[in-house]
Specification:
alpha+beta, 6-stranded antiparallel β-sheet, 2 helices, elongated
Chain lengths: 127, 127, 127, 127
């Protein structure tokens, strides 16, 4: 699991006075990229990438400007040709968001799904 | 159903060369607000509002800058205290997104769900 | 001059109840790309592009959700190796924004500025 | 001066492969709010606020995903009824952005500018 903290931006609020729902999609993406694109140990095979196929976001409570955000991102399942990533977002210990992303492992030449195997699979199962 | 068309913005693309996944959340929100906040015939009761509880987005195909976007937004279900909104997004007749939003009808004083009844219910069932 | 109209998005507002200042940067960019990237008659030379060097935005009045935006974008000056683009943004006939963008014409191989000449110059002077 | 560091988000890039110009407006705003809204010692008078009147952004170099951003924000001038804020943005020690924001100190009831005086003035001059 990767835990990150940051300050929400004022432009991420909306006229209802709270964090706008769209902002959470950006925060969830940030957790995913920290997991899959920025870890030196997570090496994808050549001409391969994880492509977002489905995002499910549950909005559990309102978030606010002026309060540190904590995101927790982990791989919740490694399927044959896909992975599931779970994202939890908190402010002051209160959970705001529970989200699930499904990413398909794609061969970028043939544009078709390919199996997650070998070292990559072991590593993802351990995150 | 409400159909809207607009041009994607260059800032909505990302370094993979296509429309970034977060941009779709904004486009889906725009369809919801066109349905619920901008139609003069959709009048919510005093101190009441629809609050987003869940968003599910299926990414079916890549979207690109330089090509008109069409969004189709409709109420797919009127529940006891909630509604489901379906959003489809197209470019050149190809469907990029199929999304479902669940919004709960909330009494803003008590912060608790309230039934969707009467004229509002009839109207939403007909959209 | 290119004139465009669109609806502001709810996610473009902020907790002060009006359109957030960052949203205008996106709207100004949209006007620039409509002028430089989407007109079939504006053809840049091979391996060349206009690169944003400076943006100056004057915020004249508050903008609001629920009210159509009109943007007016024109080339205000064609310099030796750069162009100036002026952007005006209105709601209900009231001017919200007056902005100026300076873009440098760049040779993408050498990464250095190059002169705006010939047909491109004539066309830009006439927009 | 306030110095902050954070990771750029993938959704802040664009199809040219670098950080999109609009993203910098959000980063500049974040520095301003850290200075004016989040410091417990910066107390505005009742019914008063700083309102953005002008933003000038110089784009000095391209920014990229995958590289920590450092922002430096300071008050560069305290005028009679306004302040100037300077923002510098770096990646790997290379300056990407030099920006200047002019904010007017406004009486929120009369909507007119008011003098920056007393303790607030002294504090802002020292930041």
């Amino acid at each position: 699991m990767i835990t990150e903290t940051f300050k929400p931006r004022f432009c991420e609020t909306d006229a209802l006075g709270h964090i706008n729902n769209v902002s959470y999609s950006a925060w969830i993406e940030q957790g995913r990229t920290s997991l899959l694109m920025e870890r030196p140990d997570v090496e994808l095979e050549a001409n391969s990438n994880f492509v977002l196929a489905k995002l499910e976001v549950n909005y559990l409570a309102e978030g606010f400007f002026g309060c540190i955000v904590e995101t927790q991102t982990c791989v919740s399942k490694v399927g044959t040709t896909s992975i599931h990533i779970n994202s939890k977002i908190y402010q002051n210990g209160k959970q705001l968001i529970d989200a699930s992303s499904i990413l398909v492992y794609i061969d970028l030449i043939s544009k078709s799904p390919k199996p997650v195997t070998g070292e990559l699979r072991k590593l993802l199962e351990a995150i």
